[in-house]
Amino acid sequence: MADYLYLIPLFPLIGFLINGLLLGKLSRSMVNLVACASVAASFVVSLLLFFDLKSLPPDSRVIEQVLFTWIPSGTLHVNFGFLLDPLSAVMILVVTGVGFLIHVYSTGYMKHDPGFGRYFAYLNLFTFSMLTLVLANNYLLMFVGWEGVGLCSYLLIGFWFEKKSASDAGKKAFIVNRIGDFGFLIGMFLIFWHVGSLDFRVVMEQAPIVFIAGSGLVTAICLLLFVGATGKSAQIPLYVWLPDAMEGPTPVSALIHAATMVTAGVYMIARTNILYMMAPDALMVVAIIGAATALFAATIGLAQNDIKRVLAYSTVSQLGYMFLACGVASFTAGIFHLMTHAFFKALLFLGAGSVIHAMSEQQDMRYMGGLKKYLPITYITFLLATLAISGIPGFSGFFSKDEILWKSFSSANGHPILWAIGFVTAGLTAFYMFRLVYMTFHGKERMDDETRKHIHESPYSMTVPLMVLGVLSVIGGWIGIPHIFGATNYFEHWLEPVMAAGKHFAPVHTAAAESGGASTEWMLMILTVVFVLAAIFIAYLFYNKRTELATAWRQRLTGVHNLLLNKYYVDEIYGAIIVRPVINLSLFLWKVVDVVFIDGFINGFATMYDGSSEFMSKMQTGRVRSYATLFVIGVVILIAYMVME
Amino acid sequence: MIPISAYLIVAAVLFGIGTVGVLISRNMIVVFMCVELMLNAANLALIAFSRALNIMDGHVFVFLALAVAAAEAAVGLAIVLAVYRNRETVNIDRFDMMKW
Prior knowledge:
- The complex is a heterodimer of chains A (645) and B (100).
- In chain A, 74% of the residues lie in helices and 3% in strands.
- Chain A is mainly alpha-helical and 645 residues long.
- In chain A, a hairpin with a 2-residue loop joins β1 and β2.
- Chain B is elongated, with a radius of gyration of 17 Å.
- Chain B has one domain (4-93): Helix Hairpins (Orthogonal Bundle), CATH 1.10.287.
- Chain B contains three helices and no strands.
- The model of chain B has no long low-confidence stretch (mean pLDDT 91).
- In chain B, α1 runs antiparallel to α2 (28-53) and α2 runs antiparallel to α3.
- The N and C termini of chain B lie far apart (55 Å).
- With 100 residues, chain B is mostly helical.
- At the A-B interface, α27 of A face α1 of B.
């Protein structure tokens, strides 16, 4: 059954090949058609497979399709195969579904760009890589997808490579990701060394036998894999590339740097959940890094003026939430937030793209304002996404975020401090998101007249995806309504089989903590909602009602404001302690080791031979007599030698 | 009976004169003559050994060498003649184009 699983990644690959090989030969509408149709076909197949999977009994919801043996080399035997289980089913639906909408949106957004063929080829290649990543049945194939999305990310961030800042940002993303990949690779080697296989199912089966729960080895593996995740999913300390990635076209930011690629780390950890459950120390690190990143990025988001940068830091912060969820052993909540976040963050970025499009490429919010009446559809959908990300009850973000907060409080791996950080971050999120909304859509119109004349609502190709995502941002969370509302959490049940194996290693008192806390859960939830509403009110006060208040506070807290505006100077610190020494070392290797020693050595030899042959060639006088003389001398020496013998 | 060493000394002296002549002479004809001298010195040595050891092989070699020397003299003189016609000189030091 379901032997058409390979079609899912195949369609975007074909799309990439057509658009890539026939670059410049196809008409614009043809390129758009190929790109969108290939992803749409993948989405349809994904839906069919999802229903296939759903019709199976929960315990046997696994479809594995091995296409061929990829690497048969001694003990290393790697198959090229795809694995569909409830977890990857969620992922492919998000990737192809949101991906399709963003492809459609791109047809409108990139209408006037001459590089549209290249753009859509990259976008399809990305979709292919991402689907390979989430469907792979072993770590190595997953790594291929992992690198593939990294490559596409690089290509698309630097899409407008004539701009120095864009090509720099692309390089930065690629290099920072390489650092993370190094950890991922070592973790993978360790797994292979001890388990003897990279196949997910084998590793999951063997892990309880091979590894000792809580041992240093399994902790090391988990931490190394987590290093890979911090690179790809932009966590402290490797988050610095994501804000710069905003140099790419806005739909790219929506697809790659918000909805799909950056969640690869979360997916990988959820996929490896059994190992993490066996390593409570590693889980704690994941939780702390996640919480710290969530808070850290949210505070930076408070002071940024570039509309896309606010969203970028918001993405980093929300990814922190997902890792916090994973870190408190609630992988389901992490994946749930991944999904809802994909909806509302894609929508936020696309909405921002629509705004930038209307504003003649202006990205600075200080020159916006009052756009509500010019861009009604963008405004309404954007507001829906903002309400979702802020966690207003009823919207998708509320359910996933509340789940994470509750788990970080109640789970055996959780801690009230983790909850408190998540709680504060929720307020900050609401504040900076509404600050963005007020600065962009409300208040005085601060743009110049020339720009104002050109403001227009985006075409249908852009607004329809916005509306679809708007609906999803509202209802997307309804599949995971918490128990205390008396509903069934479908999402948790759906992912149960994937997470079942790891449950054995969970500390025993988890169940007790969760059962006795219904009233606590209500209390925390209401507390969060009140806090969020208060934050929104302050944002309303500061950036709409009485803007002079914001100015006054900014002046009162100049130091803090500058610190946040300059992103805690992290780029500068990294520049001073890492980049500069590396550049100096490279300069030393270049100017001294390479030029002086290596080149000098080679050139010295050449000079020596050059000089000696210059000298020796003088003996070739061309005169027969001198040759004869040398010949005679030689004969004499030879005879003399033989006589001496 | 004259000892073999006497023949060999004569042959050596002849060979030496020939060698020096080849090395110091500028005239192609003279060089050519000196080469003949060296050739005949070798012939003399061969005959002397043949006689002393009472083996006829040396005679055979000498006849062969004489025949070859005759042919070589013909070709060599022809070359010298051709060179002279071309360059109007037989000074061997003028022919030094084959250098670095």
